[in-house]
Every structure is written in C-alpha cells, then in structure tokens.
Amino acid sequence: MRITAGDAAAGEALAGAIATVHVEPEEARILVSLADQLQALLAEALESPIDDDSAVRRVLPDAYRHEPELADEWRRLSRRSLVDRKIGFARTISTALAAVAADDVARSVPLTMDAALDWVRGIGDLRLVIADRMGIIVDGDEGAFGEPGLRDVYDWLAWMQDGLVQVLEAAESTAADGAGA
Amino acid sequence: MVGIAQLAERLVVVQEVAGSSPVTHPNISISVRYRPACSAGLVSDGGQTGRMADSSASTPQTGGQLLERELHAAEVPWQVVVWNDPVNLMSYVSWVFRRHFGVDALTADELMMQVHTAGRATLAQGNREHMERHAEAMHEYGLWATVEKAPR
Fold it and tell me: What pLDDT sits at residue B96?
C-alpha cells in the first residue's frame, strides 16, 4: 500500500481528490472484511440496550463519568446519529475498495477530502476495536490476546492513519492558503 | 497514545504480510471477544453519582452561613475533557485538536502531550449543550471525551 498526496492516480482522476491510495487486492480484502465487521458491530450496538461488549464502549464511550442520568440522556439523544455516521465511515472504506478486493491486480483509489475524513475515522474505530480484542488497555501494552497477524494489521492501520493525517494536513493548509490569498 | 516512530519497523513486516504471506488471511475476525466484558479498560468508574447540576435546587440553609440561589442551567459552567487512551496516535490526536477546536499547531501539540502525560486535558468550557456537542465530535473521531462540571 502507498498513500500519496494529490490526485496522481493515472487514468482515475477524480475531481477534488486530495490523495491516492495504491492498494493490493489482498490489502483491500483485509480492509473490506474489517470494515464490514465494524459496520455489523456498530449496527448490533444500536439494537442492544446495554453495551456489554468492551469494544463498543471504546468506540462509543459514555459522555459523563459521574452523572449516570446525564450519560443515559446523552446516549438516548445522540447515539443513533453517531452510530449512523460511524457506520458511514466504515462503509466509505468498503465501498471504495470493493472493486480492488474482487480483482487480482493492484489499483490506485483516489480519495476526496470527505472520503479521507471518513477513512481516517473509520480506521481509527477499527484500531479501537482491534486494540480491545488484543487486550491493549494502557500505553505500552503489546496485546496479550488475538490471533496471529492481528498485531501486524493493527500497526498497519496505524501507519495508514498517520499517512492519511499527513495528507489531510497538507490539503487543509493548501485550502487555507488559497482562502487567504 | 502511541507515537508513529514506534511503528516504522512494523510497517515492513505488514507490507510483506499483507502482500503475499499466508499468515495474514482476510478472514481476520474482530467480532470474537477474547475477554469478559466486565474487565474492560474503558468503563466509567461509576463510583460517584454526581448531582444533576441544573436541577440542583439548593436548599436554603436556615441558620447557616450558606446563601445559595438556584443557578440557571446556562450559568453552570461545564467542560469537555479528553482522556488518554493506548490506541490513538499522537499525530492523529494533535490533528483532531487543530481541526475541531481551531487551535494552532503548538497549542494542539501541548494539549496532546498533556493528555498523553497527565492522562487528561480540558479542551473547552461553556454551557452543557455546547460541551456535549464537542464530546460527540470527539467520539466521532474516536477520542475518549467526557463532559464534567468545571471547577469553580
């Protein structure tokens, strides 16, 4: 995988693209699978009256620590739309990669600013869930649980997230310069 | 939080793994729960039951020195706090602070380091509804944020 700033995707130019993700089919399949699982997890959280899954509590934490009534009220008012938006982030990833995942050649996928914002947040949520599954609780934990390869995927997602942040920062500062001129 | 510097070595491994090795199969499951739900790290401690601020009809103290009046909800200051977590990248958290709160890069880095080292940082103060909107935005970014009464 390669994340490049700008809309350098040969033959796949997209108006407003701020970045290009060059992705292998195998990588796309992993990401699509994870993004689909995240959507299912979030959809399940909407149906469940209590968050008995610690991963869900990481992705959708309480907004109050000491005021349970306020926490409940806040959840009642905000959860559905928040979960819908988070499902949307994950869906943006799986939709963008569906074609590569089904193919056997690497492709360049252009990302608009909006898509990159969805990606960076969807990948962040994936990392929260995977960290929980691995037993990462405090800074420095290596993760005591999880299947082989999960740690690599977790770090790979971190690398992607950092790359997307850099791309977004560059695009935002370009936009700011343009606005100031 | 974690720094991206720690990840440099891992990347090589992952690209290899994701590219060709059979070790990483697309069928990685994150739906499997490895631990009992109750042992989670991110639970509100729930020990103290806070009083409702805006309904805290202060009881007039007869004979005491306390002179309290009922505060209008809008007068009670609240704040939004972002907590440290072992997952989010330092670069990401700093970027989120800049983007959402509109602070400059230096301030964002300072706040990020405060979260990282002190465990928490106060990002904004104001009325409760406003702070709740900030908290929701932070949750949208995957950061652990809570609303609490501002110290007075």
Answer: 98
